[in-house]
């Protein structure tokens, strides 16, 4: 195995490992310890299956149908049926990275030795990941309780050679064909295995981990954008001083302020208005309070990372196989812990974007931009400059405010009132992905606008760090001039924000940003 292989065992996966498999296609391998634990738990299931005493999920129906005892000759059909019937999703395809994260996290739970599956089932799931086979999972179908049932059922369907998948090249084809082409034998499910493949919170957790990684980068980009705008608007950096920030000792606020100080160091523009002739004593909130908002977002993210770390150490299934051989029902599949932080993160994503849009608007308003041309236009009136770029920001921010409303505050009873309270965590996760995507676009438009404003301050020069960001952007986006087709420039700036290029340009000067 190469160095990139993610070894999956009972121990927790890291955020980096989840992203490596989900996004970068890193191979996976089950550890010897995992295979030993899986085999031991399977032996307990086989022994219990032979007993006359009913055991939930082994020799009974599911959910509200758990009162029915299933005869031994019907149990293979029972497991097959739960996969087929629960693969009832609807709507657009879910993104490949989300499905791969879901599959990896289910594999990690199988590797915990608490689910009772056959070793071959876990191995086959690993084989699908390594072959780049991605089951078709749909947008709608999970209530975030009893886990992400429909999404996981669609993934399990591929394991048995049914349903549709995309191969490593992204070609849509029947699962049976894709497995055959990859030399993978479909799984024949045994007692409890259908249930074990479905009963987890892996989809919402996978989306949380991926969103956290994106937000960690985007919050650095938001600090870069804020620093550029402070320069462009001839603002002050005195408010970011460490002794002022220490009066309110939030870790995220301190980190954001330190970033801003580093980004604005040695700025010719800042130095140009430090003298006694400067009559401005304080800036608008969207400039002055950037560390408080971007910092609070960091602290919210830190809490989410704490919760996600606990979840990555969990074995979510119902029932579970305990080390002493007992098979016990439980409620660990309830998605509330994940759903709450998914909803929580959507709030700062919206608010950071909202503040970014307000700063952009200030640069475009000649009454508040301290000498910049209206809308940063080349020939105002003939040219509109970045007028409509701010409209785009405003439209996105409005949408982010809407998706900041919690999904986890809702619950719709299901399964004949057996599942009478659900988390809606999958919906929280889908909302957060939209919020993260929107935040990237809004921050990119601010950086695009601030770069134009900084160029228009010539011959005054920005600081080395913000100047490096402008230079990196100029490799893809031309300097100020007459109006031109703006959408491709917004798209280019957004790509540079998402892939970390602009943050990397700043960090080449400042060192790592917090």
Q: How would you describe this structure to a colleague?
A:
The protein has 2 domains: 195 residues, Fumarase/aspartase (N-terminal domain) (Fumarase C, Chain B, domain 1), CATH 1.10.275.10; 246 residues, Up-down Bundle (Fumarase C, Chain A, domain 2). Helices cover 55% and strands 5% of the residues. It contains 20 helices and 9 strands. The strands form 4 sheets. It has a 3-stranded antiparallel sheet. The longest helix has 32 residues. It is elongated, with a radius of gyration of 26 Å.
Rg to the nearest angstrom? 26 Å
Helix content: 55-70%
Strands of the widest sheet, in order across it, are: 4-6-7
Give the beta-strand count.
9
What is the H/E string?
EHEHHEHHEEHEEHHHHHHHHEEHHHHHH
In percent, how much strand structure appears in the residues? Answer: under 5%
- Main β sheet profile: 3 strands, antiparallel
Distance between the termini: 34 Å
CATH class of the largest domain: Mainly Alpha
Number of domains: 2
Q: Name the average pLDDT.
A: 94
Instruction: Give me the number of helical elements.
Output: 20
What CATH calls the topology of the largest domain is Fumarase C, Chain A, domain 2
Name the poorly predicted regions.
none
């Amino acid at each position: 195995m190469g160095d990139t292989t993610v070894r999956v065992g009972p121990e927790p996966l890291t955020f980096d490992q989840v992203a490596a498999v989900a996004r970068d296609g890193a191979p996976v391998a089950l550890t010897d310890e995992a295979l030993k634990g899986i085999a031991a738990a399977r032996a307990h299931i086989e022994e219990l299956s032979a007993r006359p005493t009913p055991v939930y999920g082994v020799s009974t129906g599911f959910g509200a149908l758990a009162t029915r005892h299933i005869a031994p000759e019907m149990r293979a059909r029972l497991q097959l049926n739960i996969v087929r019937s629960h693969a009832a999703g609807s709507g657009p395809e879910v993104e490949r990275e989300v499905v791969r994260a879901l599959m990896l996290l289910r594999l990690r739970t199988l590797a915990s030795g608490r689910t009772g599956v056959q070793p071959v089932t876990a191995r086959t799931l690993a084989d699908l990941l390594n072959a780049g086979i991605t089951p078709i999972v749909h947008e709608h179908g999970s209530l975030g309780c009893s886990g992400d049932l429909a999404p996981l059922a669609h993934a399990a369907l591929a394991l048995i050679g049914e349903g549709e998948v995309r191969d490593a090249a992204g070609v849509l084809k029947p699962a049976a064909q894709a497995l055959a082409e990859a030399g993978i034998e479909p799984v024949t499910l045994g007692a409890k295995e259908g249930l074990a493949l479905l009963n987890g919170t892996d989809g919402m957790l996978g989306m949380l981990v991926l969103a956290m990684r994106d937000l960690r980068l985007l919050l650095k980009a938001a600090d870069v954008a804020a620093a550029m705008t402070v320069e462009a608007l001839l603002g002050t950096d005195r408010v970011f001083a460490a002794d002022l920030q220490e009066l309110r000792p939030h870790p995220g606020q301190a980190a954001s302020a330190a970033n801003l100080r580093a980004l604005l160091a040695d700025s010719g523009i800042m130095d140009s208005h430090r003298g006694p002739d400067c009559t401005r004593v304080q800036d608008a909130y969207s400039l002055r309070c950037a560390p408080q908002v971007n910092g609070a977002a960091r602290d919210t993210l830190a809490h989410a990372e704490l919760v996600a770390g606990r979840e990555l150490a969990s074995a979510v299934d119902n029932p579970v196989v305990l080390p002493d051989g007992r098979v016990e029902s439980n409620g660990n599949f309830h998605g509330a812990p994940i759903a709450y932080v998914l909803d929580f993160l959507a709030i700062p994503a919206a608010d950071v974007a909202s503040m970014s849009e307000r700063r952009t608007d200030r640069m475009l308003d000649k009454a508040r931009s301290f000498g910049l041309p209206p809308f940063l236009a080349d020939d105002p009136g003939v040219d509109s400059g970045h007028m409509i770029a701010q409209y785009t920001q405003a439209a996105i921010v409005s949408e982010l405010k809407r998706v900041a409303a919690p999904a986890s505050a809702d619950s719709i009873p299901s399964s004949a009132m057996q599942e009478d309270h659900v988390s809606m965590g999958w919906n929280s996760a889908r909302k957060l992905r939209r919020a993260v995507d929107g935040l990237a676009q809004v921050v990119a438009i601010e950086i695009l606008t601030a770069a134009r404003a900084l160029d228009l301050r010539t011959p005054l020069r920005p600081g080395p760090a913000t100047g490096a960001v402008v230079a990196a952007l100029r490799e893809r986006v031309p300097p100020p001039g007459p109006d031109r087709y703006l959408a491709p420039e917004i798209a280019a700036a957004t790509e540079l924000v998402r892939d970390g290029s602009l943050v990397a340009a700043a960090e080449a000067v400042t060192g790592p940003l917090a």
